[in-house]
Design goal:
Elements (H helix, E strand, L loop, with lengths): L3 E4 L1 H5 L4 H11 L3 E4 L13 H12 L4 E6 L16 H18 L3 E4 L13 H22 L2 E4 L11 H11 L4 E6 H7 L3 H8 L5 E6 L14 H10 L6 E3 L8 H17 L3
Parallel strand pairs: 1-2, 1-8, 2-3, 3-4, 4-5, 5-6, 6-7, 7-8
């Protein structure tokens, strides 16, 4: 069976405590929570060790775990990884978030945050790739030292790293085993379908370290018309072994019902294949 983690921001937006979020995830059959740092406070990258230990305990006491972090820079609207005048600060935040992820017991960081990676005017593709590779080199180094994997997330709405192939190109430029890319089913389904084909093409290469399961309508699995059975089949056929993050951006009824529909849909797809 595949493993699933629920991305926590919809539950947090409804005012549920982290302990409540973890218990909901557990009761629905998720192995853990994938956390958006902004749900942990105004300065999540500067939490002290006591606060981090308390966060980890809240999740693990419910019988699940923190699987990783995503939306890494969304709490910092002025941050940028592409503007040299602001990239040093962004890099420092990301280095601290790597430490946070590792200290929480997570294994994966997903770098989406499209507004913090806008393409500078007039820059060539080659120059932008070189700039990003230099930016992420120390990030990859820290991730390797802490035993986590850092993923650049291709996003349909982004003008920097918008496709899986572009993510792979950056992975190869950084050239570090702790730096990889991933497939977000919603983004990939809008920009380069079919998603199952992307999984079959790229997962065997080793460049893909994470999957987000969601629909192109930005709902969770089961909230739209995307062929989730094909996506699940591709994951099973390629031997996927890591927790899959269920990441809806909107709810059906509420966040708990959305989480329930997501995992029920994915489990039903699995049953048709076994």
């Amino acid at each position: 069976m595949l493993e699933y983690a629920f991305c926590n921001e919809l539950l947090a937006a409804e005012g549920k405590t982290l302990g409540e979020q973890a218990r909901i995830a557990r009761d629905l059959g998720y192995v853990g929570l994938e956390l958006a740092p902004f749900t942990l406070g105004e300065a999540p990258d500067r939490l002290d060790r006591h606060a981090v230990a308390a966060i980890r305990a809240q999740v693990e006491d419910a019988g699940v775990r923190v699987t990783g972090l995503h939306w890494l820079l969304s709490h910092l609207p002025e941050a940028s990884i592409t503007d040299p005048a602001r990239s040093d600060e962004a890099q420092a935040v990301l280095l601290r978030l790597i430490d946070l992820c590792a200290d929480l017991g997570g294994r994966i960081l997903v770098h989406g945050s499209p507004n913090q990676r806008l393409r500078p005017d007039g820059i060539s593709d080659a120059a932008l790739l070189d700039q990003l590779a230099a930016f992420f080199a120390p990030v990859a180094q820290r991730a390797g030292e802490r035993g986590v994997t850092y993923c650049i997330e291709p996003l349909a709405e982004a003008d920097t790293i918008g496709t899986v192939a572009e993510g792979v190109e950056l992975v190869e430029a950084v050239d570090h085993p702790a730096f990889r890319t991933m497939i977000d089913c919603s983004a990939a389904g809008r920009r380069e379908p079919p998603v199952a084909g992307l999984i079959q093409r790229w997962v065997p290469t080793g460049h893909i370290a994470h999957i987000h399961a969601n629909d192109t309508n930005r709902g969770g699995p089961g909230m739209g018309d995307d062929p989730m059975h094909e996506i699940v089949a591709a994951l099973m056929q390629t031997g996927w072994e890591h927790p899959i993050g269920v990441e809806p951006f909107r709810t059906v009824v509420d966040a708990t019902a959305t989480a329930a529909v997501g995992i029920a849909t994915l489990r039903a797809c699995e049953r048709t294949l076994t």
